[in-house]
Amino acid sequence: MSYLANALSMLIQFAFGAIATLFLCRLLAEATRAEFRNPLSQFIYRYTNPVLAPIRKVLPNWRYINLAALLMVWLALLIERVLILALGGIFPQVLGLLVMSLADLVDFVLLFYIVVIFGWSLLSMLSTDPYQPLMRFAGAIADPLLRPLRGKLVAGSIDFSPTVVVIVLLLARILLAQPLLDLGARLSLGNG
Questions:
Q1: Same domain flag for 65 and 103
Q2: So where does this one cross the membrane (predicted)?
Q3: Are residues 101 and 191 in the same domain?
Q4: Number of domains in the chain
Q5: Which of 65, 91, 117 is the last residue of a domain?
Q6: 38 & 98 share domain
Q7: pTM, entire model
Q8: Full residue range of the structural domain in which residue 47 is found
Q9: CA distances for 147 relative to 26, 92, 165, angstroms
Q10: Do residues 132 and 54 share a domain?
Q11: Do 69 and 126 fall within a single domain?
Q12: Are residues 85 and 97 in the same domain?
């Protein structure tokens, strides 16, 4: 790829990554029942609702899972994948492209959780105000993954449950997302 194509690729990844992150935050905020009065939750709701409201009329929630937000995350990653491949002059088969975008979705969610748990753990060790909006939001999102191990992996006054969860998430990226991405790449080239 040329330097210009690399620069465009970076801008595409940044733009669609930001869009996917916004809709993923909406999805996880609803799924974890994050506090709606939190200014961060209100920001996310304000900027995602105009897109999600019409889609939710056709694709309603399933339990606490906002399927419209999940669809938007997947579409953002699919469009990102198409644009980056087109920059490289690659036009994959549709089935392979769909599988690769599904792998991108799985990997994106896993990486998002790694960043949230790491950031939340770091900020909580630095005695950050627990009522700060970002801390409350990150804590609400991270809690379902940390709750089963919380208090069970304590040495001294250090809880190692975030470390174990991050290691499991990293392993899931290697053992789940990467093989799915490889399958999608083979299918996109017609080597299924």
A1: no
A2: 6-29, 64-88, 108-126, 153-176
A3: yes
A4: 2
A5: 91
A6: no
A7: 0.92
A8: 1-91
A9: 21, 41, 10
A10: no
A11: no
A12: no
Q: What is the pLDDT along the chain (192 residues), one digit of tens a residue?
A: 689 989 999 999 999 999 999 999 999 999 999 999 999 999 999 999 999 999 999 999 998 999 999 999 999 999 999 999 999 888 889 999 999 999 999 999 999 999 999 999 988 888 778 788 999 999 999 999 999 998 888 888 888 999 999 999 999 999 999 999 999 999 988 765
Residue 162 identity (one-letter amino acid): P
* Residue that is last in its domain, among 74, 91, 108: 91
- Find all residues with CB under 8 Å of 28, minimum gap 6, and list them: 34, 141
**Range 18-24, long-range pairs (CB < 8 A, 24+ positions):** 19/72, 19/76, 20/72, 20/73, 20/76, 20/77, 20/80, 20/108, 21/112, 22/47, 22/48, 23/48, 23/51, 23/52, 23/69, 23/72, 23/73, 23/76, 24/69, 24/73, 24/108, 24/109, 24/112
Does residue 126 sit in the same domain as residue 41? no
Angle between helices 133-146 and 39-58 (to 10 degrees): 60
The single-letter code of the amino acid at 57 is: K
E-strand ranges in 68-185 read 154-155, 158-159
Residue 74 belongs to what H/E stretch?
helix 67-87
Sign of CA dihedral 84, 8, 68, 138: positive
3-state secondary structure (DSSP) of residue 130: coil
Q: Scanning the structure block, which residue is given the tokens 């990653």? A: 77
Same structural domain, 34 and 126 = no
Q: What pairs with residue 158 in β-bridges?
A: 155
